[in-house]
Amino acid sequence: MCLLAYLTPKLKAWLIAQKGAAVWEDIRKMVQAFARAAEQLYHDQDPSGEKRRQFVQEQLRAMGVAVTEAVINMIEGAVWEINTENRKALVQTKEIVSGGAE
């Protein structure tokens, strides 16, 4: 009985932590999807990125996600990943077009 009394709060804390981790993973996936959609929709019309930022935040709010500092940081991370992928694709395209000649 003492063991059960000891383990129950530990198990509860572990379950809450697991649920929290799953929620953050879901938010991360939404942020990535919305950031990619914003890039697709507004890339040519929005050189400053303001419309894209607003789009992502609006979509997250519509899904019930509070746009906190942590979520804003996730958005910035997703944008960085997209920009990095785009730069890599551009370099690869230039290498293909030039035949690898520098």
Strand content: under 5%
How many strand units?
A: 0
Tally of helical runs: 3
How far is it from the N-terminal to the C-terminal residue, by CA? 74 Å
| Global mean pLDDT | 86
Give the class from helix and strand content and strand pairing: mainly alpha
What letter string, H or E per element, gives the SSE order?
HHH
Q: What fraction, in percent, of the residue positions are helical?
A: over 70%
Unreliable spans: none
Task: Describe the main β-sheet briefly.
Answer: none
Q: What is the alpha-carbon Rg in Å?
A: 21 Å
Count the domains.
Answer: 1
> Can you tell me the overall shape?
elongated
Output the keywords.
elongated, 102 residues, mainly alpha
Outline:
This protein is mainly alpha-helical and 102 residues long. It has helices spanning 2-42, 50-62, 69-98.
Topology:
Layout: H1 2-42, H2 50-62, H3 69-98
Helix pairs in contact: 1-2, 1-3
Describe the 3D structure:
The chain has three helices and no strands. It has helices at about 1-40, 50-60, 70-100. The chain is elongated and about 70 Å long. Helices cover about 80% and strands about 0% of the residues. With about 100 residues, the chain is mostly helical. The chain has one domain (about 1-100).
